[in-house]
Amino acid sequence: MVKNKKISVVYEDEAVIVCEKPAGMPVQSDKSRDMDLQTYLKHKIYERQDSGEEPFLEAVHRLDRPVGGLMVFARSKEAAAALGKQIENNEFEKCYQAVVCGSPASESGSMEDYLKRDGAKNITEIVDRDTPGAKYAVLDYELIDQIETKEGTFSWLLIILHTGRHHQIRVQCAGRNMPLYGDTKYNPRYRNMKKKYMQLGLYSTRLAFDHPLTGERLTFKTEPRGEAFEMMDVEAY
Questions:
Q1: Which residues of the chain, if any, have pLDDT below 70?
Q2: Which of 155, 200, 217, 232 yields a CA-CA distance of 20 to 30 A from 80?
């Protein structure tokens, strides 16, 4: 749970808000009833505006609750539609930094799978392409650094996400024997951790898209936070 957390807004105009989501905070309201990012931002907009109407705000992509980093919200239906089209056309760039337990097969490459979500269990699995409900998933990765510890090898990856499937990075990395640091769903090392929302070694670190009104290409970067990245002693890439 995130309490009394000030949200860092890195860019805002009449069409979009780009902010840094804290790890542990849900993007939208859920059954926990904890403060979510969309509601928090709506309240801030409402406090500033003269109108008594509820402001429009829509998340155009998602981050899992234990994941922190950059997110974009649209402030109008038109902006949401324009950004959604960029995502569909693979024109909306999303890059992550990740710390995984283990080593990738090569220093750079792609991961391609078919994934199927189990909504009842809130997990996703790698399945055969002919499985009913399976969706294609692809990402590129690059090895940035590695460290050897008494607990094993930890690798720091830069990940470029091309499709936005449920738990995609977590599932695809786990399927290649390098599950994410702190992942209580897909990493056996952490499944019995008592901490409800342990921060993952995963951070949304770079976003780039065309502004929905002006067409200007906007790029935003941030450095990851959390114990996994402190362990790796990350530097700006």
A1: 1-5, 194-198, 233-237
A2: 200
Quick: pLDDT tens for 108-138: 999 999 999 998 999 999 999 999 999 999 9
Query: What CATH architecture is 8-231?
Result: 2-Layer Sandwich (3.30)
* 23 CB-near residues (< 8 Å, 6+ apart): 66, 67, 68, 197, 199, 200, 225, 226
- Which pLDDT does position 196 carry in this prediction? 56
Q: Where are the domains of the chain?
A: 8-231
- Largest Cα separation within the chain, whole Å, is 58
Q: Is the pTM of this model over 0.70?
A: yes
Sorted by sequence, the CB contacts under 8 Å of residue 31 that are 6+ apart come out as: none
Contact between 92 and 209 under an 8 Å Cβ cutoff? The reply is: yes
- Residue 195: CB atoms within 10 A of its CB come to 11
Two tokens, residue 136: 């294609």
Decide if 14 contacts 75 (C-beta within 8 A).
Answer: yes
